[in-house]
Amino acid sequence: MFVPCRPTNDSQPGDDSYELVLAVYDATDAFPKNELYGLTSQTRRAAFSIVANIAEGSAKRGGREFARYLDIALGSLTELEVALRLARDREYMTPEHWAKVEGLCNHAGILTWRLYRAVRNRGQDP
Is 91 strand, coil or helix? Predict the structure, then answer.
């Protein structure tokens, strides 16, 4: 049975990462068709992996497991940054799309890193 997550008004890493995924999908819609199974797919998978790992980790039982999933999300953020830079340098993205996803990526990275540190330093459930 699906149990919905508790709504919140606070900015959370998962919320910002979800906004990043949406922006990445918008930006990659303009990538060349010959990149559909290459850079387009890899960029989208990396973006989705961020939010998916945050969500899955938050449902785990304990801070150590949650920190492990946040660590994976941080790795996916780095992978996404590389893919986006490549897309920018290949001129697959408009300057507007680049500015938007870069800002969202940086913000999601800051929030995720802070949460990761807090969970690891606390050594208990978040």
Answer: coil
The one-digit pLDDT tens for each residue of the chain (126 residues) are: 434 444 444 556 678 899 999 999 999 999 999 999 999 999 999 999 999 999 999 888 888 999 999 999 999 999 999 999 999 999 999 999 999 999 999 999 999 999 999 998 886 544
Nearest to 39 by CA among 91, 2, 1, 3: 91
Q: Which long-range contacts (CB under 8 A, 24 or more apart) does 110-114 make?
A: 111/11, 111/12, 111/13, 111/16, 112/13, 112/17, 112/50, 112/54, 112/70, 112/73, 112/74, 112/77, 113/74
Domain boundaries, given as residue ranges, for the chain: 13-122
- Alpha-carbon distance 115 to 73, whole Å? 11
Task: Indicate the class that CATH gives domain 13-122.
Answer: mainly alpha
